[in-house]
Design goal:
Helix content is 40%, strand content 18%. It is an alpha+beta fold. The strands form three sheets. Strands 2-1-9-8-7 form a five-stranded antiparallel beta sheet, with helices on both faces.
Length: 290
């Protein structure tokens, strides 16, 4: 029998990363564990927990996804995508703000939603779903504020210094938004089985995850027109993550969570991105062979 954990570790090593992974057959419960209970910083993967919370509150009648919300330039966290990159005032529905937060991982949109629902509600949702190792500590503005504080006067240029990176609270699961690979596949499995939300709201969440624009991580491992990958990435200095569900035309559904770190502080590391897809493919192939 092939040594699946060994193959995944070898792929990680070749790409210059360390990593943890959990893969779950959503219907049979078969699973593959590579450090699946290791605490990890979630980065933007935590937007998935926010999205579930938003839809839970909508299902309970506590908010309307069509509610209009305004975002002024002065109120936005800066960033390269979505509202964060826009220059003028914007008014849109909570539903469309959620689309930007998920599809292009817009931090300004995520913080608009957090201002509406609150961190406590997000943590109540993850607790209700039994995600005992998952906790939101910061909004995204607060998260990046800790990075600026920890970097000090050197600014973004200092993020090439391993000593600076080692002291970032944003990279310490004990002090930042956190989870485990197993918790994330548990959440994805509940979403795909309509156990996390009502079927209507679960379908809306799955739709948004399927609209993510980044194909260079998990989806790169499944280059087939009839295999669908829906997921959410997360990125911080030296951190590259993705959690998602891989769906095959024969009905097979597999939740996969991959969290990686690299010693190389470079922002562009194609091999480190692609190995998420490689590891996910190895894991899913192993589950499909059972």
């Amino acid at each position: 029998m092939t040594d699946i954990p060994g193959s995944i570790h070898a792929a990680f090593a070749e790409a210059g990363v360390t990593g943890s992974l959990h893969a779950l057959d959503i219907d049979s419960g078969a699973q593959l564990d590579i450090g699946a209970d290791q605490p990890v910083c979630t980065a933007s993967v935590h937007k998935l927990c926010l999205l579930v919370t938003l839809h839970e509150l909508a299902a309970a009648g506590e908010l309307d996804l069509g509610e209009q919300i305004e975002c002024r330039p002065a109120d936005r966290i800066t960033g390269p995508t979505g509202l964060a990159a826009m220059l003028d005032p914007v008014r849109m529905s909570l539903r469309d703000v959620a689309y930007l937060a998920m599809a292009v991982s817009d931090n300004a949109s995520a913080d608009l939603l957090l201002a509406r629902v609150g961190l406590d509600a997000v943590n109540d949702t993850t607790a209700r779903l039994g995600l005992t190792r998952t906790y939101a500590v910061h909004t995204f503005a607060e998260l990046f504020a800790t990075v600026r504080e920890d970097v000090g006067p050197g600014g973004a240029q200092a993020l090439t210094d391993p000593h600076i990176i080692s002291r970032l609270r944003a990279l310490d699961p004990a002090r930042t938004n956190r989870s485990t690979p197993r918790d994330m596949t548990r959440l994805l499995g509940a979403l795909w089985r309509d156990e996390a939300c009502t079927p209507e709201h679960g379908a809306s969440i799955r739709r948004l995850l399927g609209l993510q624009v980044w194909p260079h991580r998990m989806a790169s491992g499944f280059p087939f027109d009839d295999v669908h990958v829906a997921g959410k990435t997360g990125t911080l200095p030296t951190v590259r993550n993705e959690v998602g569900v891989v769906e095959y035309p024969d009905g097979g559904r597999y939740a996969v969570a991959v969290f990686t770190r690299t010693a190389n502080p470079a922002a562009t590391l194609p091999a480190a991105d692609a190995v998420i897809g490689t590891a996910a493919r190895i894991a899913v192939d192993a589950l499909r062979a059972l």
